[in-house]
# Entry
Amino acid sequence: MWRNRDVLEFVEWLRRRNDAIPRGQAKCGFYGMDLYSLYTSISSVLDYLDRVDPEAARRARFRYSCFEHFNEDPQAYGYAAGFSLGESCERETIDQLVELQRRAADLARRDGQVAEDEYFFAEQNARLIKNAEEYYRQMFLGRKDTWNLRDTHMVETIDALVQHLDRTRNTRTKVVVWAHNSHLGDARATEMGARGEVNVGQLCRERWGEAVFNIGFTTHAGVVAAASDWGGEVEMKRVNESMEGSYERLFHDVALAEFMLIFRDTPRVIQPLIDPRLERAIGVIYAPRAERLSHYFHASLPRQFDAVIHLDTTSAVQPLERVAPFEPEEAETFPTGV
# Structure
């Protein structure tokens, strides 16, 4: 998702922009908010404590040693802990986070803003470790609340970051969140909400109200960089043309290469689209042969988003590593396809 030329070009642009801002004025940062970095976050907490408190680092290293038997594979840990095949690290991750938080005043004020920033990142990594431990432990038990745990973690991270930047930069922070439609479109307007799932878009609206502006993207066809299975190699895959009865097909029939619809406060745009239709979601995995079952769901687009950008033909991001060119796959013929 991140090791591609688009992100590289964005980071290079961001560096040039920040370098041009006069000293003392707020610059733009680039932060992660997900919880898939369990072992990287462990290393970050230990590196921080090694610098500021070696004795506390020894305690943290002892606590986190319960993850050492899984070859830095969090799913292997989750499988063992979830089915009681190995020791759970839940208590250790909580104890480590609590210890860091109890020492916040001391650790965060040792050397001005730099120390405060370093402590903040260490605390967030410790919180991530606690939440990731629970996420992977619950994953193999088939519980739907793993999705809720993940998206709640992301919103808590956004909230903590905003509060930290507001306090330390003495300015009102503005945040742009880049995530998949399924995370950013308000879950209450989709089948997800009917299943009891929440997401970033819903939680942000509930927390910040009208200050939140949700933008979604749709496409009719093209090429996408995705894997065939979770953890698989990235492939260039041709996107099937959108299905009849979907928002994507409706937008394709407009016969414009690209356009934007703004729903907020525009009833004449909302009303014709308010009734639920099929909507497509392609993430890190794309299964063209089972597309209806795997990638379509019913939603009310104007309730999901404040605006939608439609790009009729999608081009894939370009990974930094070489990948095989896309191989056309047979399209399914739902509902008779097998």
